Protein 1
Amino acid sequence: MEAVIQKRKKPVTAKTVASKSAFYLLLVVLCVLFLFPIFWMVMNSMKPHAQIYADMNTFKTFLPSFHASEWFASYGELFTMFKYFGRSILNSLIYCAVTIAGVLVVNSLAAYALSRFKFPGHKVLVTIIVLLLMIPVETSIVPQVIILRSLGLLKGNMRILGYLIPAIVSPMYIFQFRSFFLGIPKELEEAAYIDGCGRFKTFFRVIVPCSMPVFATVAIFTFMGQWNEYVFANYMFAAKESFKPLQVFLQLVNTHNPQDLSCTLAALTFGTVPIAIVYIFFQRWIIEGVAFSGLK
């Protein structure tokens, strides 16, 4: 048996080593190119404003300030200059958490119905969902505002619901969930029905555990989309500063004193680093979910 395994192993040649080395070198170069702006932003957010320009044309631009006491000075200024800056970070986290929970529940149930139930107009509805993927999100802002105004969700604290509800339903996520559910054998559900499980119990005890990659993928994409959302938030919370998410405050920081590059970079770090961290640590789930691998 060992002899057979050894025969199947490809011999290591100079050509193989060279091709793999070139491949990994290319990956390193691409990694450096993509991470360079973030690295530069973080390093310069830890310097005073004048030092950023003084070090711009030297290698020191890639290093933080040599005085440790200045590293987080610009971050502290954000919280002192803007009363609700810390609140905006908390708002963004709350909005993301609520949106993720709503997206996972609503879109997964809708996709499960479309993948398992056959009813009149089933194919037409699936076709409409696919066609909606080609419509830009920006074209739906005005209709959404009109509907929200007619429902009274543009007044006072109700603006929060008006901001969160439109983000919960997504044709993209319904299509993604449905494509994944179609790859799950129906025999698993039939076994659950024999054991006495109903539709909802089968969904949450059989389908959901088998679909963790797509659930994680949708959750990550939802977090990234909601964290970076600006246009709709800027309109909804124009008069409510305490309700604004972080992305809206980034614009306020830049317009307040655009010459203070240190504070601007510190604010951008708050808005960028969480997305990078989430993507780096959960990229495996993204790859598995997008691949629609189903059961392994």
Protein 2
Amino acid sequence: MSCQEEFIEIYREKITRKGADALLDYLTNKSDFFTAPASARYHGAYEGGLCEHSLNVYHCLVDYLARERVNELYGLEYSEETVALVALLHDVCKAGCYKKTFRNVKGEDGKWTQVPSYQFDDPMPYGHGEKSVYVVNGYLRLTREEAFAIRYHMGFSGSEDKGSVGKAFQMYPLAFALSVADMEATYFLENDNV
């Protein structure tokens, strides 16, 4: 099964609220979500990397939330729909932002060659997490905790005020859990180019 097929299967099975079909239509037919890279030069910097990264985050979040300590001590319990929504759609802001280009790389022989690459060029510079919230809310209604989770999924590695990140994590533990899943996917599953 391809990443796109797996994404769509999970999405259709788990995300059923009003507007879900319109959002999936946008992702499938009106954006490059399934062919876009996850980054220009680091994790998932290849065609389809964004979809693959989103799936990795989903699986990492499901695993994190299934931990005994997370359930019993922290009391974190979320619906399958919420988990799928925040994980699969946390980086929807990246759709339409990467343009194919070339960059020069010095080979082992000391000669420069051009290799395919991507350049980040955001046509709607609304921020990262906040742009994903904006795009998703244009199709379906997020709960406050879902919106905060997506908004703060970069955690302390983002450009946000660090005090705001800590407060968001304290108020909305799903934001912390999604941040952990995003970092796990990026640095452990997709670490070839990070």
Protein 3
Amino acid sequence: MKEIISSPLLLTLVAIGLLYIVGFSLVYLKKAYSRCLEMGISKEDLKKVIKSSLVFSLVPSLSIVVGLFALVSVLGVVWSWWRLSVIGSLSYETLISSSVSSALGFATNAEMLESATGRQFGVVMILMSIGMLSGFFILIPFGKKLSLSVNKNENASTWKYVLSGTFMLCLFAVYIPVLLFGDTIQAAVMLTGLVIAVLLGVLASRIPKLKWISDFIMAFSMIGGMISSILWTNLFQ
């Protein structure tokens, strides 16, 4: 496994994939920019939109960078970089790697990193890739219809709110039991991050001068949770 995650071949394939994503984004940025000019939107307004979009994109990415450092110790730099740069999420990748390491007979992710074979790591890579694609396979036939039905009859239909709430409840039902009952330290870290997120949310909503914090809540809660893990490890081990 260590040979694969640090191999030049994997690094080359990941670099090609990331360059494709960047190129794809630039092509559609140019198309959107040209279309806006055709519709009569001024270049000054477009520059303002681009600047605000950059800030809106860069700030939440801080939490992804924090997640990258956490995932590197499990999957190595290259594969973690790929998963969190394109379509993956820290919670999904961590859950899959933990489930696979347990199914393969390893006590921890660290043990899997040290002892897993290339074939076993291939199982991890396939599950992470194929499992995440299931959402796209659903969106291909139903995505447009769902999007249009959500946008029309906004006042007459309430099913979209039910659907959104159900989706979030499903996420909670999948991830929270794993975090709370899997390991004492893991549960303490999650609760610490939750408390930090709630406190920051209250401060941002009640104090106008601290409204900017709302853009950093996820990053701050993740950093605070990771720092607290040192304390909880010393207490419980």
